[in-house]
Predict the structure.
Amino acid sequence: MNTKTLFRIFLTTGFILWVLSWIGDSKGILPASTFGMILSVISTGMGIYFWLKSYKEKRGFYPNFFKIYRHLINEMKKNPFNGFFIMVRHLLKFYTLILVFSMVLVFIGFITIGQSEPVKTVQNYCENNAEINDITGKINHYGILRNVSSQWNSETGSSELSLVFVSENGVFNVYSKLEKENGEWKVNELELKDKNTGANTVYN
């Protein structure tokens, strides 16, 4: 199997896995969706490797991305629709660029916002609240994707966030509002939704 075929297979597999993993994460298909994201990154990396190798074998040198970017901008200055035509001609490379960009954003979001104090506070609250544990059982895995809206400084702040986790008793969505006073975060309101039954429980 030649390198051109290999890079197409790996990149297409990476793209499909990434889309399915995003859907799986939002639906609480955990930890399978997390493993899918990891495999997607590996497959995409292998695809890029074989693409660069194929490019070198065909042309004798590696691509000059800055030169390609300048060519694209110049063509779009002549006619804005040229960008669309170039995208169609290089569809695999285009969605690979989008794929890598989204992976970088998810990684940055996970190690920053996803690991922020509000998120950790909510996770600790869920794991150590006896009433919640009676419903969920032991929490086994949290989803990678978190929706967080926060404003705070060293002493005060507020935050609203949502996340999903899988536990012994099923998959649950969490929606929470927090306040920061005197440098400490406190959960003011937490809504726990059972994705299997649709049952909602609110904790104040």
